[in-house]
Structure prediction request, 128 residues.
Amino acid sequence: MSHYHCIIHNAHCAVRLGIHEFEKEGPQNILVSLKLSFPFSALQRIRHIGDTVDYEPLRNFIQSWSERPHVALIEDLLDELVSHCFDDPRVEHVEATIRKTTIFEEVEEIGVGIVTSRQDWHALTARR
Prediction:
């Protein structure tokens, strides 16, 4: 089956995140990447923004993290992001990564990611 993708690659955001004391001193930079997959048939003919996937609300959701209180685990942000992506009923699959870029001097990036289908995501979150 053919799929359409909406991609956000390396969205920058400064968030209060982490379990270490030095991470609690202020925001740190993260990079967020997304790939949402839709069946091609779900989009039909694209004539205006309502016929396609508007990536600006996704970008805004990510940027809103800079205003939130401290979050201990990066996995919490990932869960929120994936759930938000599946709010669009056309989304069949989500690939998402969140990476910290300044936590360790000798590591360029460190983070978490997931590749999941709507069905698998709902089954996973129902067990929690």
DSSP finds three helices and four strands in the chain.
